[in-house]
Write a structure and sequence with these properties.
Elements lengths: L7 E5 L4 H12 L3 E6 L2 H12 L4 E6 L5 H15 L4 E4 L14 H29 L2 E6 L3 H4 L5 H21 L4 E6 L17 H8 L1 H4 L3 H14 L3 E2 L3 H9 L3 H15 L4
Parallel strand pairs: 1-2, 1-4, 2-3, 4-5, 5-6, 6-7
């Protein structure tokens, strides 16, 4: 997979942000792009931008949480291209709020999109990858999987679950010559945070200062592309994620971090 020219690459949530910036990198490498998104207008604009630079792009308006829609899309893609070389599960939504205020409706929406969405795509395309004994799956988790910050509990729990699934899948698919990369982005300057309900002073400040401590989507897109090219199993994206990962081995440090975060972010504090 080091040579990505003419490889068929599907990116969910490809209309903007990390998905679009990742697509730009694969386009430069000469890959054949398939972009999916629920936003038809933005998806069309993204495709036109890429085609204006000579990229081969197919688009599908798709709800990742619908197994039926994803299976239908997979049939079309495999019929047209004969295979899928790289699947990048990037589509997702955020959620900010204390667990006691998180409704079952909120949980279902997060699970359907952030967990079942990637699974729908994986199980739709995995049989063809197993048959051909080749392929690469990328699952975008989050640095929240390491920090588990108060007020981000629901989102972090699901991203942690997705990360666990993804890393285990990578080990299980090795005998079939199928690679799996689990990506842990840190904070990224995209529209992802536009809907964050900044009710506390801490949340308001963290959102206001976001441009100064976050990654650009261009940077993350480039890192994801390189992780596929190198065949990496895990991509940490940002050094701060490493701090969160190793803090788990020092309970007092991790507990102190969460105590400070709770004081800074929670409504009660």
């Amino acid at each position: 997979m080091k040579k990505l020219k003419d490889k068929v690459v599907l990116i969910t949530g490809g209309a903007a942000g990390i998905g679009f910036c990742t697509a730009e990198n694969f386009a430069k490498a000469g890959s054949k792009l398939i972009l999916t998104d629920i936003d038809e207008e933005s998806l069309g604009s993204a495709a036109e931008k890429l085609r204006s630079k000579g990229a081969s792009v197919s688009t599908y308006v798709n709800d990742v949480s619908s197994q039926k829609q994803v299976e239908s899309l997979a049939k079309k893609v495999l019929a047209e291209h004969g295979r899928l070389d790289v699947l990048i599960n990037n589509a997702g939504i955020g959620h900010n709020g204390e667990l006691k205020d998180t409704t079952m409706k909120d949980w279902k929406k997060l699970i359907d999109i952030n967990f079942m969405g990637p699974l729908n795509f994986i199980y739709a395309f995995l049989p063809s990858m197993l048959e051909k004994r080749t392929g690469h799956i990328v699952n975008v988790s989050s640095g929240q999987a390491f920090f588990l910050l108060p007020t981000w509990g629901a989102y972090a729990s699901i991203k942690l679950g997705m990360a666990g699934y993804s890393e285990v899948l990578g080990f299980e698919l090795r005998p079939y010559n199928i690679k799996v990369t689990t990506v842990y982005p840190f904070m990224v300057r995209t529209g992802f945070y536009d809907e964050v309900d900044a009710e506390t002073w801490g949340t308001k400040m963290s959102m206001k200062l976001l441009p100064y401590y976050s990654n650009s989507p261009q940077t993350v897109g480039r890192i994801i592309f390189k992780s596929v090219k190198k065949g990496k199993a895990v991509e940490m994206v940002h050094p701060i994620n490493l701090m969160g990962f190793y803090a788990r081995f020092l309970p007092h440090v991790h507990g102190g971090m969460n105590t400070i975060a709770n004081w800074f972010l929670s409504k009660k504090a």
